[in-house]
Design brief:
Layout (H helix, E strand, L loop, with lengths): L1 E2 L13 H6 L5 E7 L2 E4 L5 E6 L6 E2 L4 E5 L2 H40 L6 H41 L1 E3 L4 E6 L6 E2 L6 E5 L2 E8 H4 L7 E6 L4 E14 L5 E9 L13 E6 L9 E2 L2
Helix pairs in contact: 2-3
Length: 281
């Protein structure tokens, strides 16, 4: 499973000289981005058997998105289960032998006055040996249970699940191919969107945490509001812009309809402006 580097989401196509001349020095430009973007990879090696979702499908956190071939992992777990059963039987046998040796030792102690001292010493040695065998059996049982847990974990990891609620936006592999821990299978993009801003140095000081913004998505003819919730502590030395982020207020009617990467023009709102977003006719 590989997460995109957040810094990459700031990247955009270089601005042409003409665009640079036309764009006002005080213009605030934003881009809609997803809060989380992740390329999901399996945590175990195997053959990709099934993709259980479609491109563009909304999925919930914890939902199974793809399956590796399960049979090898199921067989491995069955073998480890059997190993645990054998180890448990060995522990029970060793425990019974310890109890038997202890009873023999207690009997030799009670009749010590009527028997040779060597018999008690032999019984004590038998107890010590039985206890050592029990400790070994318990160690082997613990090891078998660890291997059982690892096999169960491998079987679970053969099911690739969603880390959060979001949308499937890309498939990298198709069923039938061998995949490994370094092989991305699909991309999951969160439903939660935010706005990343490049604010000119000349007006950056006028924006604060909590500043409300009017956000215009020109290509969609949609107007939203947003609230600044993160501000970079530095100004880019080349562009002379300060990076900020804002939480988008998206009405239910527009959820799932706004693609990431869409550009926005942004301006601060007066404190008493309406907070509701609206879609333009």
């Amino acid at each position: 499973m590989g997460l995109l580097t957040p810094g990459l989401l700031w990247a955009s196509a270089p601005e042409s000289p003409l665009e640079a001349r036309v764009r006002p020095a005080s213009a605030i430009v934003g881009v809609v981005v997803a809060s989380h973007v992740v390329d999901l990879s399996p945590q175990v090696e195997g053959r990709l058997e099934t993709l259980k979702v479609r491109l563009g499908e909304r999925v919930s956190a914890g939902q199974t998105l793809a399956l590796l071939e399960l049979q090898p992992f199921q067989l491995e777990l069955a073998g480890r289960d059997a190993g645990v059963q054998v180890a448990e039987a060995d522990e029970s046998r060793a425990l019974a032998l310890v109890e038997q040796a202890r009873r023999r030792m207690e009997r030799e102690r009670r009749i010590l006055a009527f028997s040779a001292a060597e018999a008690l010493e032999t019984a004590e040695n038998e107890v010590a040996l039985a206890q050592a065998d029990l400790a070994r059996a318990r160690g082997l049982l613990a090891e078998a249970r660890v291997r059982q847990a690892q096999a169960a974990r491998g079987l679970e990891q053969a099911r690739i699940k969603a880390l959060f609620t979001g949308i499937i936006t890309e498939f990298y592999m198709q069923p039938g191919v061998l995949v490994s821990r370094a092989t991305p299978i699909l991309r999951l993009v969160s439903e939660e969107l935010r706005l990343r801003l490049a604010v000119p140095e000349s007006i950056a000081h006028t924006l604060r945490l909590g500043t409300r913004l009017r956000v215009r998505l020109e290509t969609m003819n949609v107007e939203l509001t947003a609230v600044v919730n993160h501000i970079s502590p530095e100004i880019d030395t080349l562009s002379r812009h300060q990076k900020m982020e804002a939480r988008l207020d998206i009405p239910e009617s527009l959820r799932g309809r706004i693609p990431t990467g869409v550009l926005a023009t942004v301006e601060p709102l007066p404190p008493d402006s309406a907070r509701t977003a609206r879609q333009q006719p």
